[in-house]
Amino acid sequence: MPAREEPFPRAVLDVLGAAADRPVFEHGTRVVTGTEMLDLIARIATGLRANGIGPGDGLALLLGVNAEAFAAILAGHVVGARVVGVRPGLTEAQVRHLLGLDIAAVVTDAGGVAEGAPVRLTVPDLLTHSPEPLVRVGDDLASPPAEPLRCQGRPGDIARLIHTSGSTGAPKACAQTYASMTNAWTARPDAWPPAIRELATRLDRYLVFGSLSSQVMFEYAVLTLTAGGTIVVAGDPADAITRLKATARVITVPGLAKLVAAQKREPADVSTLKALLVSGSPLTPERHREALEILGPVLFHGYGQSETGMISMAMPSDPPGTVGKPPVDVEVRDGELFVRTPGQASGYWANPGESAEVFVDGWVRTRDLGRFDAFGYLRLTGRVRDVVIVNANLHYIGPIEQVIAEHPDVAEAYVVAVPDDETGEAVHAFVVPKADRVPELDELRALVTERLGAACAPAEVTAISEPPVAPSGKPDKRQLAKMINSA
């Protein structure tokens, strides 16, 4: 197959080839050049093929944040596998679920999941719940082939599964085809929309942390390479801008608030900073203006979903409170937002029911509300979904209510999302007690954490005799939220 016709990650491999001796990845004192990264990718791809992994096979990745992890993701795509990244923060049951999704092999490194992850599973644990063979990065992988790497992904095959938060117990998997990943703009400068073209000039040193299985973290890393920059590992991103002289990093809205507060209280040297990539939840106009005032013109506020990829992005010069103007190749119907993007998912893996609700006639139903202003900027105005967004991860409220209601002292449970300075939003539980005993907050937190993870655990609990009722006859959660605000 001619190189120009090869699917993703052909464009990324070409970028690395052109980089040659230029540093593309930095981890502490270790610096990896474009040629060395290609060598890593080739070795891992050869090892995968030697273990029978090829087009259409499921490949789960439990990796830290390092050069081998980045190479392993690309190698999985080189051989045409269906790549499933297992991110930190999932419960053991959720990890087991992911490893049961028709997985042919598991790739891990010595540390298993990323250092400092809330959920730690040893390699023997993973072997117990995953099929053979197990391919370990760096262990007995064959030498790279003499001929150039050939990308074997088939256009209609699923290239990767991007998992949602898992608040329903089993994370939903957004299935993106090789054709979709090839059509995406990240590694194609000729397709960059204006906001990305501007951002690309600021990605000299882009911080990665947490997990390279994060869709946002990985795609900005690919953009950095394409723009001629270097991916820099930050074990703790808190002081990494100053310590590592970073020019760009991903940040959540709560993280941005903390950074702004810290700069107001005791300014650090962030003179190298050129781009903060704000994602995960809406940014209010007031917070947007304050961040621009304190940090300067460095905010790029992206709006997108796992199902769609980027929908739009506000540049520092765009009006605060907007998420910019969608690129010309992205279609948006306002009101309840329906969108079409070049790199959108094709549905949820093995979930036809939910796929039919969200993926409709080529459109993706975002379940967000928004409108275009008179100047063509997109403004988000609310959401249709009953969800809470904690640390930029979306969690459905229904399953949280169901778990709380299983407590022996709870007759009914209702959950609302409330603003939280630490996490963006948090869970507030309202319970109708059985008899006279109100369950302790710690009991409910332990119950929810065990089943759905710590992010879903209630921050507060309020006992009520009965919920307020809307004209529809359903519990009125807006009234519950007002009870919190008036308390």
From TrEMBL:
Ligase listed as a keyword: yes
AMP-binding enzyme C-terminal domain ranges (all copies): 400-474
Region described as Disordered: 466-487
Stretches assigned to the AMP-dependent synthetase/ligase domain: 20-349
One Pfam family matching this protein: AMP-binding_C
Keywords, sorted A to Z: Ligase
GO terms, molecular function: acid-thiol ligase activity
Alphabetized Gene3D superfamilies for the sequence: 3.30.300.30, N-terminal domain of ligase-like
Name of this chain's protein: Acyl-CoA synthetase (AMP-forming)/AMP-acid ligase II
Protein's organism: Lentzea waywayandensis
